[in-house]
């Protein structure tokens, strides 16, 4: 279902939509030189080993995100680097294993935001429709007065998000912008699962409270797919993420950023469809270089 939406995205007419990054937020970010690092780990059900890990580095009004996923042996390896540059309205996704990249601009994300919401509101699945309604934001509440946690319960879906105060309101707003863009990009590159709007509504609530999530638990009914279209199963499924925030970058972080900057220049540009579905499109988009005998991406 989501893959049909993905294929039809290129047919959507150009739409003037709400900007991913508000003018006031961007101006505020430009006036400071603060930094922050956020380490995240994602677990499924009651498993002790994470199914994913990421490191988001905020510096000089730019965010670098390093995503690690399990390889064939189950070991976490660097799978993707994301550059989010809100001042230049630029997002770059890099696959370090294939040495390819795709660049997305604000217009494409704006189109996705509006088109995905319109599609979800008209979906047959009541859970998908709920995710795109205003009742989502109205349903966010503090389960216990004075507790640093918010709850959102919908049909077959329940979020519990614990949070901590950010070092500044600006840091909370920057984290929200980055998290929202990440959710939209994931919906574009890996269609499937619950639309991102419930989590984006929670992000807005936390930014309003100058907070950043520290622990997120998402409980889904057994017949719902996980994010990215992973199949459902019998009984409830639980995804839990832990987030550790630090107000300063480490020397190793700065080396990561330098290496990632070099990768941006070295990686080959490919269409989004090739980046998202390398195996399906490999035969059509990989040719043999007659001079070197190496495969090159057209």
> Runs with pLDDT <50, length 5+?
1-31, 227-234, 283-298
Average predicted local confidence, pLDDT: 81
First-last Cα distance = 29 Å
| Secondary-structure element string | HHEEEEEEHHHEEHHEEHEHHEE
Major sheet description: 11 strands, mixed
Shape: globular
List the quaternary state of the chains. Answer: single chain
Number of helices: 10
Placed side by side, the strands forming the largest sheet appear as 7-8-9-10-1-2-3-4-5-6-11
* Protein structure class: alpha+beta
The amount of beta strand, in percent, is 25-35%
Describe this structure in words.
With 298 residues, this protein is of the alpha+beta class. The chain has one domain (2-277, 290-297). It contains ten helices and 13 strands. The chain has helices at 2-8, 23-30, 106-121, 126-131, 135-138, 169-189, 197-208, 251-266, 272-276, 278-285; strands spanning 35-44, 52-59, 62-70, 76-85, 90-95, 100-105, 149-154, 157-165, 211-220, 237-246, 268-269, 286-288, 295-297. The strands form two sheets. An eleven-stranded mixed sheet has the order 7-8-9-10-1-2-3-4-5-6-11, with helices on both faces. Strand 5 and strand 6 (100-105) form a beta hairpin. Helix 6 packs antiparallel against helix 7. The longest helix is centred in the middle third of the chain and has 21 residues, at 169-189. The protein starts with a helix and ends with a strand. Residues 1-31, 227-234 and 283-298 have low confidence and may be disordered.
């Amino acid at each position: 279902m989501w893959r049909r939406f993905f294929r039809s995205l290129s047919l959507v007419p150009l739409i003037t939509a709400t900007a991913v990054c508000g003018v006031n937020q961007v101006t505020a970010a430009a006036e400071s030189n603060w930094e922050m690092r956020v380490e995240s780990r994602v677990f499924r059900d009651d498993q002790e080993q994470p199914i994913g890990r990421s490191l988001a580095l905020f510096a000089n009004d730019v965010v670098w995100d390093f995503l690690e996923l399990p390889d064939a042996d189950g070991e976490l390896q660097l799978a993707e680097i994301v550059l989010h540059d809100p001042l230049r309205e630029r997002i770059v996704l890099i696959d370090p294993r294939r040495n390819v990249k795709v660049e997305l601009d604000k217009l494409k994300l704006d189109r996705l935001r509006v088109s995905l919401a319109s599609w979800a509101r008209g979906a047959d699945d009541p859970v998908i429709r709920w995710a795109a309604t205003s009742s989502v934001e109205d349903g966010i509440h503090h389960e216990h007065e004075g507790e640093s946690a918010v709850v959102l319960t919908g049909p077959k879906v329940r979020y519990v998000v614990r949070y901590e105060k950010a070092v500044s309101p600006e840091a909370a707003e920057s984290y929200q912008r980055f998290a929202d863009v990440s959710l939209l990009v994931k919906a574009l590159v890996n269609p499937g699962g619950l639309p991102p709007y419930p989590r984006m509504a929670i992000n807005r609530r936390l930014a309003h409270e100058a907070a950043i999530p520290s622990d997120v638990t998402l409980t889904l009914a057994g017949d719902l797919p996980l994010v990215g279209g992973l199949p459902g199963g019998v009984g409830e499924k639980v995804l839990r993420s832990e987030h550790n925030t630090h107000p300063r970058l480490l020397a190793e972080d700065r080396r990561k950023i330098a290496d990632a900057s070099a990768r941006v220049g070295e990686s080959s540009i490919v269409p989004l469809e090739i980046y998202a579905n390398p195996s399906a499109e490999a035969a059509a988009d990989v040719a043999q270089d007659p001079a070197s005998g190496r495969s090159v991406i057209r």
